[in-house]
């Protein structure tokens, strides 16, 4: 009987240790980098992410096809609008945002590739335990492949590899992540955006289509 109870406890313990699909913290602030395998795109951005009220702010600079760019956008999914902000000129471009909000999360159809330690497991605070998941997404008659790495504890995003036939491989790396909103004002349109008129052309649809 004791052997049976021990076996059950060990089995439950092993199951509990298996990585689970997860959703990232609803409030995040940090930085990220984006680059493509064909070297056409290189970008760095500061992001503010609010899944509770479905808002994202991205302030980004980089180069695309050897042309430098700077983008400051505020995506408000509940309101269905996106603001392209120019603080220097105190101007705003307001466009429709038609797609629904999708939180940062490991999709339910994702398959676990493995669990590793980034850094070192030789001593305390020398490494971070992460899980890597992979799968496919269908969108507008296009099949996209992805690999997503998140921390085991907290489900904080670490990196995402995304592939379509049109774009090739694109890697996004998250760093300096802070749980919470460092500056909540970043998710409120500037006062000079109050007179912006809604344009007919749709804006970017997702977190990554801005990049």
UniProtKB/TrEMBL annotation:
Residues 1-16 form the signal peptide. The lineage of its organism: Eukaryota, Metazoa, Chordata, Craniata, Vertebrata. InterPro entries: Ependymin (IPR001299). GO terms for molecular function: calcium ion binding. One of its GO terms (biological process) is cell-matrix adhesion. Keywords: Signal. Pfam families: Ependymin. Coiled coil: none annotated. It comes from the Eukaryota. This is Ependymin-like. Belongs to the ependymin family. Transmembrane segments: none annotated. GO terms for cellular component: extracellular region; lysosome. PANTHER family: EPENDYMIN-RELATED (PTHR10697:SF5), MAMMALIAN EPENDYMIN-RELATED PROTEIN 1 (PTHR10697).
